[in-house]
Amino acid sequence: MAKDNALPVDEKLQEQMAQKLDKDFDGHEWYGTELKSDATPIIDPASGKPAIIRMFDFRMDKSIRRFEATKQQVFSAHSKQILTLLWADGLRPIEGVNPRVSIDTRKRTYKIVVAAEPRLHQTVIETPNSLNDVLSTAHKK
Predict the structure, then answer these.
(1) pLDDT value, residue 100
(2) Where do the H-state alpha helices sit in the chain?
(3) Which residues share a beta bridge with 57?
(4) CA separation for the pair 13, 11 (Å, rounded)
(5) In angstroms, rounded to a whole number, what is the distance separating the alpha carbons of residues 141 and 132?
(6) Looking at the chain, which runs of residues are DSSP E strands?
(7) What are phi and psi of 6, to 5 degrees?
(8) The pLDDT value given to residue 70
(9) How far from 133 is each of 22, 113, 129, 136, CA to CA, in Å?
(10) What does the angle CA 73 – CA 60 – CA 99 come to, to the nearest 5 degrees?
(11) Domain positions in the chain
């Protein structure tokens, strides 16, 4: 590759962005960079259809010593049960949003998180929260 295609390096800018640390670690020189961002809040107009997040907790069978199932196999094993529970609540999974599967082999549990929406002619009794409300309460915890 020819050097003509390389972008020019602004040495002054590079010196301003990188600060050499006082100590060397294992004989290597380390450089640090200070990063800043604006505290611009996320703008959520709180409009659109409500999305309901449902989480299903399961425990692994104690007779199984080693859990070797993949996340897809875990979800496939419970998909009909999850669809039935969502249907009973007047919900259906949102198309295009994949469910999340979290496996904790140490605690021998796994969780399946599904995004759902109300079925046709179903009303949502719960008061929906905007993204700003959810993030502000999560930040305070």
Answers:
(1) 94
(2) 11-17, 71-88, 131-140
(3) 111
(4) 5
(5) 15
(6) 18-20, 31-33, 52-59, 91-93, 100-104, 109-118
(7) -75, 145
(8) 86
(9) 43, 20, 6, 5
(10) 40
(11) 52-119
- Name residue, tokens 């999974």: 93
Record the pTM. 0.59
Residue whose tokens read 């390389």: 6
pLDDT tens figures, 52-99: 889 999 998 877 777 788 889 989 999 999 999 999 988 999 999 999
SS3 11: helix
Q: What pLDDT digit, counting tens, does each position of 91-125 carry?
A: 999 999 999 999 888 888 899 999 999 888 887 77
Q: What is the DSSP letter of 8?
A: P
What does DSSP assign to residue 42?
A: P
- The CA distances from residue 15 to 21, 32, 33, 116, 131, in Å, are 13, 11, 10, 51, 40
Return d(Cα 41, Cα 132) in angstroms, integer.
8
- HSE, side-chain direction, 13 A CA sphere, residue 130: 9
Helices and strands: H and E segment counts in the chain: 3, 6
* Tens-digit pLDDT profile for residues 34-51: 666 677 766 777 777 788
